[in-house]
Amino acid sequence: MNPHDERVDPAAPPAGLPADGLRTETDSMGSVEVPAAHYWGAQTQRALEHFALGDERMPLALYRAYALLKKAAARVNLASGRLDARRARAIEQAADEALAGQLDAEFVAPLWQSGSGTQTHMNVNEVLANRAIRILGGTIGSRQPVHPNDHVNLGQSTNDTFPAAMHIATLLALDEHLLPQADALARCIEHKSEQWMGVVKIGRTHLQDATPLTVGQEWSGYARQLRDALARLAHAQRGLLELAVGGTAVGTGLNAPRHFARDMAAAIAELSGKPFVTAPNKFAAQGSLDAMVAMMAALRGLAVALIKIANDLRWLASGPRCGLGELVLPATEPGSSIMPGKVNPSQCEAMVMVGIEVIGLDAAVAFAGSQGNFELHAMRPLIASNVLRALTLLGGACRNFHHHAVAGAELDRARIDELVGRSLMLVTALSPLIGYDQAAAIAHLAHEQGLSLRDAALRSGLVDARTFDEVVRPETMVGLPDGQD
């Protein structure tokens, strides 16, 4: 599932509706002319006119989460006797069509809207109500026999359903889009680490030569970074399982029957296959968005790890002749419009850009998360969009980075061996024998006079050839520190 799937052509009318013309719809403020070709109603039309601030729309993932929530509400209200079977089944059918993507063109509320998300919520209520009316053979826009507020929204408020829909959309996007791609990338890196565990290379600190390690050890660090980031995502994910629905306007549950919150969470859990529960404190669930902020922070953490890994790989692959050149990345496309034969680490660069974008999205979410007031958090659309956008970008970047860069990466063994042989930092192995200062003098002599480390050591008179050859052996310098498997 891509949380930001493209909508179908919004100009194309749903089957059976007029291709053009207007119809009159009403809301609590009066009548509004809306396109006869679409299912949305008066409040959605007002939103299109009053919030025309750009082209952004709420992500479809949020709308589909709302459709799942409305389907659950129809079932719960039917079971409690508050909604008759005829209306409940029509609403549920309309919700199923929305979940299947058949109503995507109807979900058009602008991203920049009321901070509660009322315009998005009413867009859902109106579309499902009008679709249910059509299913039942009624006149679209009549609010009979299905009313967007009285029936589709029975026992609910924007204030409790929007944060619930945010949690549902985010958790589903994690499980269905990001986590499978990130896990596959981590497994590929783990495989490379095992494959290359015996290949000795020169280490680098401060971008300068350091003591040896193996390629597998280096890549095990990448794998562990990803696994740690995924563990933090899993921890943040738990907060999304608590749903605000049932708190209605301010968290007290006004106009919702007893046990409605519990029953809604159970119905959503059954429909989604995820262990959702009712939030134990609806005032916190509706007045804050802390779980979403925590999730965004965990996504930022994943982005930071991915940036580090992608940057290392493009440094290691730099060249092919005048750079480090230890790693050979797959050639996926020409790299230059002027330099023939040039191939760039484009997948690494794309990953870095995605990571930077996610860090920026997190900054906005963190600040927006601080802006809740009293019993309502009024920055919800921004936070929902940024979190789902981050999920989309990271999932796609992990997929492409895995398939087009990491999976096909190979080592230039000759170059690795050459660099190990030229390194001056192998002199570190002599420090216990001759002391730090004397070992440093050998390294400086080799560097200043262009000597090999062995030649410089012998010229210094501090060690003989046999001792040097026994002590300065790169393959014996890559042991694991205590406590590491």
Order of helices and strands: EEHHHHHHEEHEHEHHEHHEHHHHH
Strands, count: 8
Coarse morphology: elongated
Percent range for β-strand residues: 5-15%
Q: For the report, how would you describe the main beta sheet?
A: 2 strands, antiparallel
Radius of gyration of CA atoms, rounded to a whole number = 30 Å
What is the H level of CATH, i.e. the homologous superfamily of the largest domain?
Fumarase/aspartase (Central domain)
Looking at the overall shape, the CATH architecture of the largest domain is: Up-down Bundle
Distance between the termini: 37 Å
CATH fold type of the largest domain: Fumarase C, Chain A, domain 2
Global structural class: mainly alpha
Mean pLDDT value: 95
Low-confidence runs: none
Strand order of the largest sheet: 1-2
What's the CATH first level of the largest domain? Mainly Alpha
Helix share, percent: 55-70%
Structural domain tally: 3
Describe this structure in words.
The protein folds into three domains: 22-154, Fumarase C, Chain B, domain 1, CATH 1.10.275; 174-242 and 285-413, Fumarase C, Chain A, domain 2; 424-476, Fumarase/aspartase (C-terminal domain) (Ribonucleotide Reductase Protein R1, domain 1, Orthogonal Bundle), CATH 1.10.40.30. It has helices spanning 42-50, 60-79, 85-99, 118-135, 148-152, 158-195, 215-240, 260-272, 282-287, 290-316, 346-369, 380-406, 413-422, 431-434, 436-449, 453-460, 465-471; strands spanning 22-27, 30-35, 200-205, 208-214, 242-243, 277-278, 327-328, 410-411. Helices cover 56% and strands 7% of the residues. α1 (42-50) runs antiparallel to α4 (118-135), α2 packs across α4 (118-135) and α11 packs antiparallel against α12 (380-406). A two-stranded antiparallel ribbon has the order 1-2. The chain has 485 residues and is mainly α. The chain contains 17 helices and eight strands.
